[in-house]
Design a protein that fits this description.
707 residues; mainly beta; 53% strand; disordered N terminus
């Protein structure tokens, strides 16, 4: 079956490559609407075309986001990106990038930016790809995706790539806008806002504000009715084993309000957002009670930015950014365990983490006729707090497990040069980054770009990214199950990529790429089986090291080797019809530092792909898309044995009716997973069971109004 699917997919790509080219005169204007934005800023911190940027990239515009009906960044990755996808475990959307995936890493190897400012939170480097990133896509101008560890000018967490979410400028927003949605599982959403424009002493002053609220009961599908309770739990409240089955009402709930604003006064831009996502945990993570609606996680994020850009001459310009970020995480888990509180039915386990970051960046750009140079640096200070408390059920008694706080500091200096020699483009960039708790790291990227013709461009890129250990990895200590490790080193990831862009006409565009990448000193959770394994001299004086057998500790325990190839194609046919397709193959092997045997990385699919089509006329627009994730292995160490999971498909359909009732109103209809595919995703070792469903079939109706 798998071979048939891949052959069909390859045949479809071959047919589309040879689609005839229609007349340039009749299609030029329409095709430009489809191919849209062809410039990118996030790779080198100045504007470049897709042919000039030293990486393989994908850009999705606001027009395509609207036509496809995407709701989150995860939708974009699954249904539009070349070699990224996500697994959804009913807590978060966990990113896969070129096959690199680690259970419980919380997207720490993908760098997420909003308008060029890092939003990976300071405590764990977590980056939300779902509604935990509180930016409605209705406010997004475009999303820029850079594949591989080539976003070196930003510093840490770029091993898997960079995702830059560029929000709309005030001038591109309507004076008033509102969107009301209702759908399956009591899905309710409203987004509304307004724009203003004035001036002060002939300096334009404009801005917009938006508020959004989302709430959904979630599904009740649950698991098949099999015994889920291993020896250590989870248990029902009456201490009987759990056998799975449908979830309780709102055990899978999700709630997410948000606010966003942007002001522009001449060359100064102020922006900010706030929001939280509270999500039920219907599965049984960490041995808690299955399908209890008191199990939840809550991520709250706010960020405020001030940026200033000034051009002294056409050759010389400067820019600066000042940013403040506040993040908090709250987890509440229920346990049918009276060990902490005798004569109770159990307890709530509360983990509250807060993190604040202040950062400043400044850079100078020299733009000559045949060369460009950028010099800059940034500094940031992060303050972290965490408390863990157990509360009895019924409530009334508390047990304080631990509290912790620390400060992290980092600084960096970067430079990049780009030279045009004849038709070729050479570039070289470097970034030296130093954290107060690790050694300094030098990141680099070099590229050679050669246009064979005005329709064919070759790119060769080599570079190295890195990821610094997070607070949770090097400092977290709970005295029950986890040890800190102050000797952790940063992960380093050198990579080489060769790609080719072919644009035979205004209506066709293809990108082919080959890549190889290595991640050394991969930070992995290791279960201590012998006291000699413990690193960092963290055993308290007088303690028995044997008492820590069974604890976990993060260590630089593995290396990962990635290699693969990808294809991306876009076609504009005629009469408002456009197609796109992406296919990626990656082989990911892991090697322990204590063994030379390379084994397939768990949770990493070899094949990912998607295909979509868009139709637009004067009265309606419609789209459909399918995504594919190839087979993968479930997690090692899970109570349910490791096994292979078959291919997983998902789909969506979106329809929009223009001028509905009035010229300023639209009606849209979205169906997610229309064929109710039984696609599976791997769940963390923290979960019972080890597999979950990708999506349940659902429908959403929206009314959009703006003028």
């Amino acid at each position: 079956m798998k071979q048939k699917l891949l052959k069909s997919f390859s045949l479809l790509i071959l047919v589309l490559v040879f689609i005839p080219t229609f007349s340039q005169e009749s299609l030029e204007e329409e095709s430009q609407l489809f191919f849209g934005q062809t410039k990118i800023e996030s790779a080198s911190k100045y504007t470049q075309t897709l042919q000039e940027v030293p990486a393989t990239v994908t850009i999705i515009t606001s027009d395509t986001i609207e036509k496809m009906g995407f709701k989150t960044v995860a939708d974009v990755l699954n249904f539009y990106s070349t070699s990224m996808a996500t697994f959804y475990d009913r807590r978060y959307e966990f990113g896969i990038t070129r096959g690199l995936f680690e259970f419980e890493d919380y997207n720490t190897r993908i760098l997420v930016l909003v308008d060029g400012v890092i939003v990976n939170e300071p405590a764990n480097n977590f980056a939300g790809l779902d509604r935990s990133l509180p930016i409605p896509l209705e406010l997004v101008e475009r999303i820029e995706i850079i594949y591989g560890p080539f976003g070196v000018l930003y510093g840490t967490s770029n091993l898997g790539g960079v995702i830059n979410i560029v929000t709309k400028s005030p001038s591109s927003m309507p004076k008033f806008f509102s969107k009301l949605s209702y759908g399956s599982f009591n899905n309710k959403e409203i987004t509304t806002g307004f724009r203003f424009k004035t001036s002060y002493k002939d300096i334009p002053f404009e801005g917009y504000f938006s508020a959004s609220s989302y709430d959904c009961d979630g599904v009740k599908s649950g698991t098949q009715r099999i015994k889920l309770s291993p020896d250590y739990g989870p248990l029902n409240w009456d201490r009987t084993p759990i056998y799975g089955g449908a979830w309780e009402e709102r055990a899978d709930f999700e709630r997410s309000p948000s606010l966003f604003g942007k002001l522009r006064f001449g060359e100064l831009t102020l922006s900010g957002f706030w929001g939280y996502r509270k999500k039920g945990e219907p599965y049984a993570p960490w041995g808690d009670v299955y399908s209890d609606k008191n199990n939840f996680i809550k991520d709250e994020l706010s960020q405020f930015n001030a940026s200033f850009v000034h051009s002294f001459t056409p050759i010389f310009s400067i820019s600066s950014k000042l940013s403040y970020e506040d993040y908090s995480y709250l987890e509440n888990d229920t346990y049918a365990d009276d060990s902490f509180f005798p004569n109770s039915i159990g307890y709530f386990w509360n983990d509250l983490m807060k993190a604040r970051r202040v950062s400043f960046e400044a850079s100078a750009l020299f733009n000559f006729n045949t060369s460009k140079y950028i010099f800059g640096g940034f500094a940031k200070r992060e303050k972290l707090f965490e408390t863990i408390v157990d509360r009895s059920i019924p409530e009334g008694r508390n047990y304080f497990e631990r509290g912790d706080s620390l400060t992290q500091r980092a600084s960096a200096f970067y430079a990049m040069g780009e030279w045009r020699i004849s038709k070729s483009i050479f570039s070289l960039s470097g970034n030296y980054v130093k954290y107060n708790y690790t050694d300094g790291e030098l990141l680099y990227r070099g590229s050679f770009i050669y246009p064979f013709t005005d329709k064919t461009v070759l790119k060769v890129v080599a570079g190295q990214g890195f990821r610094v250990p997070s607070y949770y990895e090097y400092a977290y200590y709970d005295e029950i199950s986890n040890l800190p490790n102050p000797t952790l080193k940063s992960e380093k990831s050198p990579s080489i990529e060769v790609s080719m862009i072919v644009e035979p006409s205004l209506t066709q565009s293809y990108t082919f790429s080959l890549f190889t990448q290595k991640v050394s000193d991969l930070i992995t959770s290791v279960t201590i089986t012998d006291p000699s394994q413990i690193e960092g001299n963290v055993i308290p004086n007088g303690a028995n090291p044997s008492d820590y057998i069974g604890f976990t500790q993060y260590q630089n325990a593995n290396k990962v080797y990635l290699k693969g190839a990808s294809f991306s194609g876009k076609w504009y046919l005629k009469d408002g019809v456009s197609l796109y397709s992406n296919l990626s193959y990656q082989d990911v092997k892991k090697e322990s530092n204590f063994s030379e045997n390379k084994v397939r990385q768990n949770g990493s699919p070899r094949w990912t792909g998607n295909f979509g089509a868009i139709f637009e006329s004067e009265k309606v627009y419609a789209s459909f898309a399918f995504s594919y994730i190839g087979s993968f292995l479930t997690s090692e160490g899970h109570p349910i044995p490791t096994f292979n999971v078959s291919n997983s498909w998902d789909g969506r359909f979106h329809l929009g009716i223009k001028n509905f009732l009035t010229p300023k109103m639209k009606l849209t209809f979205t169906v997610i997973n229309p064929f109710d595919s039984n696609g599976k995703v791997p769940l963390s070792p923290a979960f019972i069971p080890s597999l979950g469903k990708r999506n349940d079939r659902s429908a959403i109706v929206s009314l959009v109004y703006g003028f």
